[in-house]
C-alpha cells in the first residue's frame, strides 16, 4: 500500500534537546511538506521541498531544520532554538510533476511532540 | 505573503441543517484551492478546485470556486453528527507552496 508514514506517533523532549521527526513516503511524490498545528491556528507551513536536495522555508521555519537527501524521506529536526515546540506535526506530499491533473495532497498520521 | 481566511471560525448547527463555509484567499500565482476535513488526526481530502464556476460534488458536500472574488464555499446539506470536524481550506500558489486557513470548527448536534 502506498502512503506516508511518520514516526514516532508521540515524542517527549526535554528542554534544550534537539529531536528529529521522521517522514517517509512510497508514493513517488516529488514535493513534500512539514506543517505544524496548534489549537485555533490551522496548519502552518514550516518547510517544503519540491525536489531532492532542495528545500524552502515556509512561514515558521525558525528553530527547525530539514534535509531531503532521498526522494522518499524528509526528516524534520526541531532544535533547541524553537521556543515553543509543543505541537502536532504533520508531514505531507503531493503527487508527481505533471501539473493540471489530480494532485491531492496526502498527509501522514502526524507526530505529537511534547516538551517537558 | 500568501493568505487564506476562513469563516466562520466555528459553527454549531442541528442535524438536518444546511451549512455554508467560506474561504477567501490572496495568493501569488494561484494554482488550486483544496478543502479538507479533519477529525482526530490528519486531514482527509475533500475537493480540489482549479476553475471558476464549476461545482464539485460528493454526496451531501459540494464546493465551488470564484476566482474573480478570490473565494470558495463548501456546502454541506442535511448535516449529520458525523460531519462534526474542522474543515480546512488551502490554496496552492507558486512552487507547490500550500497555505492553509485556520479552519472552521463545525459541530452538529443531534
Describe this structure in words.
The complex is a heterodimer of chains A (116) and B (110). Chain A has strands at 4-7, 10-13, 19-25, 31-38, 42-51, 54-57, 64-66, 76-78, 87-94, 105-107, 111-115. Chain A is mainly beta and 116 residues long. The radius of gyration of chain A is 14 Å and the shape is globular. The model of chain A is unreliable at 97-102 (pLDDT under 50). Chain B has no helices and eleven strands. Classes of the chains: A mainly beta (116), B mainly beta (110).
User: What is the strand content of chain A?
Assistant: over 45%
Largest sheet of chain A: 7 strands, mixed
Q: What is the end-to-end distance of chain A?
A: 36 Å
Roughly how much helix do the residues of chain B carry, as a percent range?
Answer: under 10%
In round numbers, the mean pLDDT of chain B is: 92
Shape of chain A: globular
- The radius of gyration over CA of chain B amounts to 13 Å
> Uncertain segments of chain A of ≥5 residues (pLDDT<50)?
97-102
